[in-house]
Each structure stands twice: as C-alpha cells, then as structure tokens.
Amino acid sequence: MALSSEGKFEYPTGRAGAEGLGYDPVFISEASPSLLKSFCGVGNPFSLGAIEPGATVLDIGNGAGFDLYVASRLAGETGRVCGIDLTREMVDLARQNLAESGLTNIEVTHVSSEKIPYDDNTFDTVISNGVINLSPCKQELFQEIFRVLKKNGKLQFADVVLEKELPGALAGSPEAWSQ
Ligand SMILES: C[S@@+](CC[C@H](N)C(=O)[O-])C[C@H]1O[C@@H](n2cnc3c(N)ncnc32)[C@H](O)[C@@H]1O
Questions:
Q1: Are 95 and 72 spatial neighbours (Cβ–Cβ below 8 Å)?
Q2: pLDDT tens digit sequence for 34-74
Q3: Is 113 in the pocket of ligand 1 (CB under 6 A)?
Q4: CATH of domain 14-159
Q5: What's the pLDDT score for residue 178?
Q6: Which CB contacts under 8 angstroms, 24+ apart, belong to 48-55?
Q7: Which residue's alpha carbon is at the smallest distance from atom 5 of ligand 1?
C-alpha cells in the first residue's frame, strides 16, 4: 500500500475512501494528493469525539499520514500529534507527506504498536484506523494504549470486526484477514 494502492483493497481507499467515510471536506480538499492517495482507513475516528486545540494525540498505525494531518489541523500549533507504524515504507511516506504539508507539530516513529514509545499518561486521545485487527497481540496493545492515555483520555478507533465465524477456507487465508 505504501508503494501503490492500486487493486489491493475490497473497500474504497484514497480520496474516495475518505469522502465516503465522512471526513471534513475542508481537510480533504486542503490535504495534498499524496497524503490522500494511500489512505486506507475503514472508518472515521474523528466522528467519535472532538479533538480540542492544544490536545496531545497518538495515531496507532498511521499509514501514509492522513489522520495525523487531520489531528494536527484540529489540535493546532499548541497541540502535539504522534504517529507510530510498523512498516518502514509507511513511516517514510508519512514523514515525506507531512513535511510537504508544512505542519510542524507531528512526529512519526517506526515501531510496533505493542510497545508504544511514550511515557504513561501522555495523550488526551489515541486514534487508530484499520490497524488493531492486524495486531497479533491485542491484549498487550490495549494495555499499552491505556498506559499512555491520560486519566479521562479517549480511545477513538475504527476497525474491522467479525460478526460471525469465517468459513474454513477463508479463516486459513492470510490474504482474507488482511484485506
Ligand atoms: C489498513 S492500514 C491503515 C493505515 C492508516 N491508519 C489509514 O487509515 O490510512 C494498516 C496500517 O497499520 C500498520 N500496522 C499493522 N500492524 C501494526 C502494528 N502491530 N503496529 C503498528 N502499525 C501496524 C501498517 O503498517 C499500515 O500502515
């Protein structure tokens, strides 16, 4: 996905995906095409609660950086926005995309979400979009999220959930689990 988004997903991605998920049209129109091109979120974490000016926000699995961009616009210059992602290519792409957008309060770290490289009680809001389902260590991940959230902080995430057991052939297919 970091290299090309063509033909890899069963659901709308890129700009069409963000439009369909109800992101603020102002952010969609003002984000650079490269920020939007590799967006592959499955929902809109910002629809679940406001990000206040000055907020500290962590995005788990930031991908190409569109949600970091939106969080940074909402948190403003006095806010602090951090992203972590497991994939080197995504980290490089997000850093490049965000540097081009001129926002200065964002940092992106190459690390797996099961070990979040921030102190306890750091973030007002943790967001994530289409990532937690990919983690093989969900218990550790949720423990880490609640460790870095401030007391009364909020976790706002969108994800893929199973509503019933998968049939045998699909259940054994890594491709099915990742698309
Ligand atoms: C479906 S994409 C979603 C990307 C981004 N949130 C978006 O909405 O465009 C999944 C992302 O999660 C990252 N990822 C997968 N497993 C991860 C893990 N255990 N820790 C951190 N990032 C992970 C991938 O590298 C990829 O960038």
A1: no
A2: 999 999 999 999 999 999 999 999 999 999 999 999 999 99
A3: yes
A4: 3.40.50.150
A5: 63
A6: 48/154, 48/156, 49/125, 49/154, 49/156, 50/74, 51/75, 51/79, 51/124, 51/125, 52/124, 53/78, 53/79, 54/78, 54/79, 55/79, 55/124, 55/125
A7: 63
Whole-structure pTM value: 0.94
From the CA of 112, how far away is ligand 1's center (Å)? 9
Non-local (6+) Cβ contacts of 152 within 8 A are none
Question: What is the token pair recorded at 149?
Answer: 């959230």
**Could you give the angle at which helices 88-101 and 66-75 cross, rounded to 10 degrees?**
40
For residues 132 and 158, what is the distance between their CA atoms, to the nearest angstrom? Answer: 9
Instruction: State if residue 160 touches ligand 1 by the CB under 6 angstroms criterion.
Output: no
